[in-house]
Amino acid sequence: MYFLNWGEANINQVTFQRFLQERVGKYTVESPFEQMEFVLTSDKNRKADTIRIASVPYKSSLKFKQFIDAYAEELKFDGIQFRNIVLRGSKLVSKETIRDYFYSLDEGMTIPNKMELTAKWLLQEIRPIQKAETNKDWVMEQVELMDKEAFQQAYYQNQEIDEDDFSLEEKFLREEVVDRAFQPIKKRIKHYGFVHVGKTYQALFTETEGQANVPENWEEICKQTVENLSEMYLTWEDATPFLYFKDLLFGPRKERMVRHLFIDEAQDYSAFQFAYIKHTFPYTRMTLLGDSNQAIYTYATDENPLLTNQLKRKLRPDCSYNQL
Question: Could you tell me which residue ranges the UvrD-like helicase ATP-binding domain spans (predicted)?
């Protein structure tokens, strides 16, 4: 993909794989070439191979996107998994407390708005906890390990307020230690680290009872998917859906500064991937370049928007289609 940004003369180039990898976090993302190699070398007599082969078209389709959308609607009322806020092995705020606060908010609010309010609430909740921590024994142990510069800074602060009261120096040092300990906690809260995205997404594949419009061997597909997610691994067909789901929780990272997007080899993108690109670049003009006769990932989906007039229906209503 090529990005032409506002105010920039140069065009930025990035592969779709790198674009995904930079956004999924600690998960390892399979490359499209690894996926293709698997498909070409898979053993039809091996059950695990046939299960994955059957899952690729579905997970690449708009039906799966709609399936995730329906799941996200259910999460407005229950189901999101949270993490404990922890300091030095001790719970500051439990995941149950966070869940109760999140779901006490107005049901009419969107999930991303609730996330934002929950983050602000958590920052307020840990403020008195941080203050209370300054008097604990572990803080003084850390004070003794601080560098010379920290002691000098505390001394100068002491002199500015009351040069005769040396107890203030210890107070400043204790506050500095606790502040350093709480900085990464506050950062995680601001980046919604109190939400367990992986477990929440896994629930889509563990609570399979009553699910409709899914492949016949859906239960086997789900077990295989959960195994991969547990190992922090995203197959190529899972990477885009996972990131889309993450956006549904926290709000999309809309690229508003990109003026024009050029997508080369467009015949090799799935319908889900095109939908996600549109979701991420809602205000960007796009040019798709490709040759359907050169498609090498035809096993992934039969819904590639580059084919015939599907481009107008599924990608953008205002686009044009030129066949050379």
Answer: 159-301
> Judging by DSSP bridges, how do beta strands 2-5 and 258-263 pair with one another?
antiparallel
Q: Average pLDDT over the chain, rounded to whole? A: 83
- Reduce the DSSP state of residue 161 to 3 states and report it: helix
The torsion angles phi and psi of 242, rounded to 5 degrees, stand at -65, -45
Closest CA to 246 of 26, 17, 14, 15: 26
Residue 243's nearest CA partner among 186, 182, 310, 198 is 198
Q: Are 90 and 70 in contact (CB under 8 A)?
A: no
**Cβ(269)–Cβ(240) below 8 Å:** no
Pure H helices in the chain: 16-24, 32-41, 47-59, 62-74, 95-102, 111-133, 137-143, 148-161, 167-190, 197-206, 218-230, 236-250, 271-280, 310-314
Radius of gyration, alpha carbons of the chain? 25
Residue 301 has pLDDT above 50, yes or no: no
Look up the pTM and report it.
0.83
The pLDDT of 3-12, averaged and rounded, is: 56
Residues 87, 160: Cα–Cα separation, whole Å: 32
Q: Which residues pair with 258 in a beta bridge?
A: 5
Distance CA 53, CA 39 (A): 7
The pLDDT, as a whole number, for residue 297 is 53
Token representation of residue 143: 């004070």
pLDDT of residue 319: 58
Residue 118, number of CB atoms within 10 A of its CB: 23
The answer to whether 206 touches 222, Cβ cutoff 8 Å, is: yes
